[in-house]
Amino acid sequence: MAKLFSNFAIFFTQDMKTIISDPTLITKEVVSSDGTRHFVIKNTLESGDPTKLGHVFRFLPPGILHKEETGIGATTLELESKRNSIVVEPLRSTALTKSQKSPDYFFVGTRPDGSIATAEEIREYVKGREHVGKPVKFICVADSLNRVIEALGQKKIKDDGFHLLIDESDSFQTSASYRRSMEKALDYYKDVFEPRNRSMVTATPLVFTDPKLSSEQKTKFSYSSPVRRPLTLVETTNVAGAIYEKIVDHFSDPSAGKLVVALNNATKIRDLADMLVVNKILDQNDIRVLCGKGSVDKVKKYYHELMDSMLPVKLVFKTSAYFVGYDIEEPYHLLIGVAYGKIMQLSELTIKQIVGRARTGLHSVTVIAQKNPLPLSNRLDFDDILEIANHQLDGYRCLIINFEKSKHLLDEVKVMKEKIEKAMKFRGYSYIREDFQGKPQISYLNIDGYLEETRIRERIFAVAGGLKMALEEAGFDVSTVDMVSTKRISQSNEQIQEQKKIREIAERTLPGSAGKWDPAILKNPVPFKRLEHAYGIYDRYQAYVDPDFLREQILLKLDSVNESGSKRSLNKLDSLLYFHVLDPSTPLKGHIFSKVEVGKRYSKGSLLSIANDALAIAGIYTPYPDYSQARKMLGVFFEIESDGRPRKNPKTEARDQKIVSLRKIKDGAGNSIEFPKPVKFLPISKEKFRADMWFKK
To answer: Are 566 and 506 in contact (CB under 8 A)?
Structure first.
């Protein structure tokens, strides 16, 4: 670590003069005790235009770069610099848009027409640039970085001095739990690119716990006169209702400008949009939703993929897919919704990023947030998580090494690795992973993600006034307003009719015992995802359980009052059916049924032990920490009833958990019935079994 830092110090003392193009724009340069170099630059040029990094520097410095302001031009500087560059963006939409700003840039990823750049196209682009003596400029997302490196080869990348820039680096830390490619990109950053040929930049930095990254040279950029923005914080107990009323109030003025609503809930956005149209506040053509591909089916006709830097209509909703990196080049009003659902607990840093997308300024910024603080939860610190990760890594390595010793188990090793990583999740995060070379490592990005998630809850949402204080520290001048909203946001009649249509199609096409199921139906386009989900369940289990029972249960789940409820109900049915028809000789199922009997009483401790033993027998090596988690898993097989007797000091051995019956389910009349006996059992498949462990911790 000391040697690495020394190399950086040498670079900065010897080569920094060659990086700086106009030292007159630097008002102050300070090196702090931890080695961070801080450049304070003038806010404006003599012309009055804002000063950008490209006016001050020829190249970005290496290491971790903290720009105190969004829109300061870090990525632009790298793309316009006279060196070969690979710029990695967190989102495809951002990467695609930036690549379209110049024919000199090459986008590596899925193009609008669905095609993907081939290795040959990548190499031909490089040859063309070399032929005319111009630098190479690749723009991609984390998933595509390996394709650039494999197409060119690590030797050429090093010999030709390619510089890797990871943009919005904090997004990599907070997204790694569901995008494995984020960590692979950081592996390439650390192991393929020399320290002087790599940078990562963000306006909202998080601490890196990875030792290799924490030792990177750090550089900070700020303006001599820090920019503070006015922000109105509206506190309410009804966030969705308040957002609706604010939108109505905004468009009550015919001359009102464009409005952007940042709300990380696609289903609620659809409800709001439909209500605005039904109540004739706006026309359908005046509303668009910017969201990820996975939410297109939720927002339906309002979906829009932004292909330039202008807002397409009067009212634009956007989810987290557009919170960072996607810049708008026209002024607008901004409304941000913050609530207590996990995906809607936006930090002050995320809000700063959302505000920073307005490159030409904002008319107003309003944050509507849940009023009452959340209860405190038990938060583990870095040392606790690292200890857990090290124990998991030791166990993981031991298990895989032993499996690899047997030639009969080699085919299972790859599947084992993937499933063990998933099974070892703790508090929503997996702290072990495989690097790009296939070696097991600690997942430091997931540790970063956990620490940030718990920081947000503990310091912002579990503290009265926590969000206001955090926003002020982030550079906002906050004025607080209380708002009472009684407006209830519900499904529109259009959505209700859509659900009825889905059920009618399912009722007409699922045969039950009256006809024969045609699996070819799944090969044709299905108009609704929920219907496709229902068909998939019927197709999987119609040979194993009574088809009339299966048909009735699917139709009942499609009767849910809303789309998300229907999806949850279908997922639960899928899980219950899988374990119901699973062969009793499957290790987990066999062990549970050999230890638990209907009609008997058990202590919570003994049921917890049975559940954890069953997990271990099945190859799932992270035990449940308490009975409440174990009960969810045992509830897949049994109806369990607690004693209900009040106990001031209950003994751990108290047998207060009664196994009432096998698992039951409601029929069409609302009666609880047992699952019918399987017609046959689902054959044992270890890969399928491990992949379908739905009772997650």
So the answer is: no
